[in-house]
Write a structure and sequence with these properties.
The chain has 194 residues and is mainly alpha-helical. Helix 3 packs across helix 4 and helix 4 crosses helix 5.
Length: 194
Amino acid sequence: MAATAGSRTQKIGSVFSRTRNLVRIGLLEKPLWLDVYAAFPPLREPVYRVPRPRCGGGARDPIAPIFYREDTVRARFYQVYGNGPRPFDLTQLNFKSTCQRFVEKYNELKEEGKIEEEKLFEETGKALLASGMILQRRGVDKVSQQEQQSAGSRDPALQLQLQSVLEELQEKRKDRQEQPPELAGTHKEHPHPS
C-alpha cells in the first residue's frame, strides 16, 4: 500500500520511510533531517505496533495504586473533622497542617503501644486537644454531639428512671401553678411534725 500525501496511514511504516517515499515521488520537499536520519539510523526502527492483550484477560493497569499506612488515618481524619476552619498556609516552609500533626501524634501514640488500635483515633484527638489544638467535628454542632455522647454512655434503665423523675417534677410544677396563691404558701409537700 503506497502512502500518499492525502492518506492517513500513519500506522504503516515509519516516519522516515513515509517521508522518503513522498520525496521520491515529488510530493514533498526534502527535509533537513532526512539525510541525518539516513546516515545515523536508530538501532530499532520506530514503527507503530498494535498492542496485544496479555494472557489472562483484558489489559490491566500497569501502575498499581499506592497507599501508605497513614492514608487510612488521613482519610478518617478528613471524614470526621473535615479540612478545618482555616486554609493551608503554604507560604511558610515548615507549615504543618492539622491533619499532618494528627497523623504524627497518631503514629507517636501507636509506637508507644499503650493504647488499643480501636481507641487510638479518639485518644489522638484527646491528646491534641490537651496540647491546645482545637479539633471540631464536621457537620455536628457541639451541643448535639455532647448529648449523643452522654446519651450513649447511659444505661437504658437509668435513662428510664431519669425520664420518670423528670415527668414527676413537671407534674408537681403544674400542680403548684394550678393552686390559688393563698393555698400555695400553706401547702407543703413534706410536713414536719411540730
